[in-house]
Amino acid sequence: MIKKLTLGLMFFAASSLFAEPAITAIKVSNSIDLSKTKPNDAIWSKAKSSTIICYPQTTIKLNDKKANELNAQNKAKAASISAIYNANSLAFKITWNDATQNIQLPQKSDIYGDGVAVQFAQKFDDPKKLPYIGMGSKDREVLIYLQKAVEKYFEPNKDIEHQVSRDNTNAFGDDLKKYDAAVKALAITEYHKVFVGEGFRSMTQVRSDYGKLGMDMSYKGGKWSAVFTKPMSDEYVDISKVGAIPASFALWDGDKMGRDGLKYLSSWVAVKFQGKKGGDALVDELTSEPTGDAQAGEAQVKAMCASCHRFADQNAAPAAMAPALYNIGGYSTSAYLAESIKEPNAVVVPGYNRNAHANFSWYSVDDNGTRTTTMPPMMSDDKSIADAVAYLKTLKAEVEK
Amino acid sequence: MSKRQLAMVMDLNKCIGCQTCTVACKTQWTNRNGREYMYWNNVETYPGTGYPKKWMDLGGGFDAAGDLQEGIIPNIEADYGVPWDYSYDSLATFDYTAGNEKAGLRPTSEPTWGPNWDEDEGTGNFPSDNYFFYIPRICNHCTNPGCLSACPRDAIFKREQDGVVLVDLDRCQGYRYCIAGCPYKKIYFNPKISKSEKCILCFPRIEQGLPPACAQQCVGRIRFVGFLDDEESQVHKLVHKYKVALPLRSDYGTQPNVYYVPPTEAPAKFDAEGKVIEGSQRVPVEELEALFGKDVHTAIKTLKDEKEKRAKTGESELMDLLIAYHHSDMFRLDNNYYQEFAKESGKSLLTPIDERYSSGKNTKEITHFKVHA
Fold first, then answer.
1. Is residue A214 within 8 Å of residue A35, measured between CB atoms?
2. Contact map slice: A 66-95 vs B, CB within 8 A
């Protein structure tokens, strides 16, 4: 009873400024094959949706000039997310506003498809040490489901004969129709992919039919709705024996040339399985408000961090000196922020391209490939750290109306 | 930087703009499946719009401090030109009795732009001081590639054995940052497969001791291929011994490995009466300096001096090199080098796949590419 009350209070707290809501996955019948679920199926009327905010990724700046201009003033996007589960699978439905439907086309080079992803942590037994939000980190791997709006396209090297343009064949009339049909049959119709990652650049695609299951997205009336279904247990992440899991979500806006790091991402969000026990520590960790004094934290962070990091109105640091913190409060957990201040080497985000900015290295790499961050431990007393975290959690863009 | 570096030298005095290299490359690599618009090798007229349009103004590369610069990604319609075909099917089904105004054989898309749209236009007033020359361009297989630095997927790699820069198509997700990062715009987006593709320096030929198709087919014999550290190679002699071959736009900071012998042999200008102005330079040396850097002055001097020496004494190693007597001397690929390497690694050929991810890192099944065993 007390537990229920706490949970209820936490959901109430979700509407406050800092705390993130949890998602409750509703139990449905085991006889339903969730991997076949579409966004508009009636089953979703049973689910409860939560509003999850996805913040513009600003930790790293990429090198596409036009895209950077288009994304310079990005606000955060709200996504409405619900979940259902049974003994076999967990399914998410994600709905978000997007004024333009962008579908990548096989004959155009300047169109970027809208997209959406869900990220699962491989290990989450210690809720204070979840993987780095940006595609995981060393020894804290993640599994990522990604789908994008694309028209049919070829995978390379599957078939050589049918790679020639129809006008370059010797076929006429019916033979040409046959050729077109063969080409169509060979094309891949969906961009549904699953990756394993341990940090920027490292994502490696899972090459099996595994990722072909359980993804779909549809656009109607200025909104995208997407479904992802993950088996409760598979060789990558087993979520069958727990009461709650962390998940995070990302959105791409093709209209703003969104792809890769040009995205909106949420922090780790707790997903509670209705009717299952356990996972309370995780839910607590991901839904609780920071305890420190943000005002005291602001003074400290501005004094101690601004020479290397850029954030809020602090833009004095060289652009490529260190991760930019403009939206760090939106997509990082309090535990991650505290850990990084106290122990910068706990998570050294791999994949920052040292060659692209030879004069500023975020970290050094020894002969064994071990990364050591350039950042020294900044604070050691719990009060200062809590205050700094409370301030850092306020660093995030406004939500788009 | 790779252990060794393959390089190509192109003698611009001898390029006649015949596009045989372009065709050799196209028929071998880019005539299908979304690559139709790509020219891994192109020959452009300079001064001219270039391919893609105004590529030198699109950013990418590094600044003096070594920071990767933002770039603009050209698009097919506006900057490369949509390749058109003539459909024989439309001819077969054409109704000749209907009194159509247009002929039956029509382009599949209305031609509005393409490579060499402004071929041979050049600049200046004909015949007194007009000029142009050709620049054949392939991927520079840079020592510090902008594309590689820009890739957020670790999908581009530089082979240790010969410095060839390749895209691992298994890892490429078609994000196109590489195109913004390459100041030469020599990496292309294939929209049909949604991946980036580029010149591979014909590595399957190279490994068998054959030069790249563009170099083999060049009728002007302007292309030399070899390892830069091989003192016997003509590439080494032209680049390091005589210093007459220079990289294109080295100010982009990528350390390109294709070198050019600058064009020095343009005819003199004419005056208003059509008489030769003795000693005049038709191709302004400032233009050459903008393309090939300050070293172009010494390169030009060396070329002129050696030419004179040859005329007077009948002897000049440099002139003999540039005459390009034998393919066997121009292409020194050190065949045995690749064979030895293959033996050591236990493979019969070099793998084109990036070794960093080939062990199945993170996933149980990583690739559908069949690498030769």
1. yes
2. 66, 68
